[in-house]
Amino acid sequence: MTDLQHQAHAGSFGAVAAEYDKARPSYPPRLFEEIERLAGRPLRGADVLDVGAGTGIATRLLAERGARVIAVEPSGGMAAQLHAVSPGIPVVKGVGDELPCHDESADLITYAQAFHWTDPDKSIPEAIRVLRPGGALVLFWNLKDRSVDWLGEQERRHAAALPSYHYYGTMNAVTEPLSRYPLDVFGAKVRWERTITVDDVITDLRSKSYFAVAEPELRESVLADDRAWLLGLFPDGRVVEPYTVDLTVAVKPR
């Protein structure tokens, strides 16, 4: 993906914020237990920056576990949706490459489904600057299990139909830059699944950047084909989606 394409994809979410909030997957409780274990501290009472917070799917879960969370989000559309759903969570405009925060002001910096939109050569030093000693940079992604036949076939269908289709799969290429910095890096994987309707699958797809940037006629054609194909596979309209959450925790030395 070129820099211009990357920018177009990164800027596409504001227009699909409602779809994003409605149909994107949440995160299982065990993920937050793993974050606490690898970071070596409880979320309760922690000062957390949730960067690229989007509509606040992960932000709300962090707050529910007792963290003092500030959402950092560059998109006005996404931030407006977050505020509408969770007016008690403070939101500031900003990006991970240039955090609007004081030095050593956070215990945890989290990126849920968002770190791949940053420039690691900027966002990692920024995280180190803002984290307190012993604090942690926490990166996680919900990844669909593409080894499941229908999900693998769906990926092939989208790759063939959409010029800008991309699937990040493993995050190794994204998290590898962490090794260049004085951080103690740990990882874990958390498996879970959700059951949703075919309509929710389509809504979720609308929130993907490679659908959001597609020409409307092409987008609607691919989504209509997907709906018919999914109903052929799942006549009752109920779909089980298996996920693995890929978690990386990088701790700043004390």
UniProtKB/TrEMBL annotation:
Top-level taxon: Bacteria
InterPro entries reported in the protein's UniProt record: Diverse_substrate_MTase (IPR051052), Methyltransf_11 (IPR013216), SAM-dependent_MTases_sf (IPR029063)
Methyltransferase type domain span: 49-139
GO biological process: methylation
Sorted UniProt keywords: Methyltransferase, Transferase
Short name of any one Pfam family annotated for the protein: Methyltransf_11
TM helices/strands, residue ranges: none
Family statement: Belongs to the methyltransferase superfamily.
Name recorded for this polypeptide: Class I SAM-dependent methyltransferase
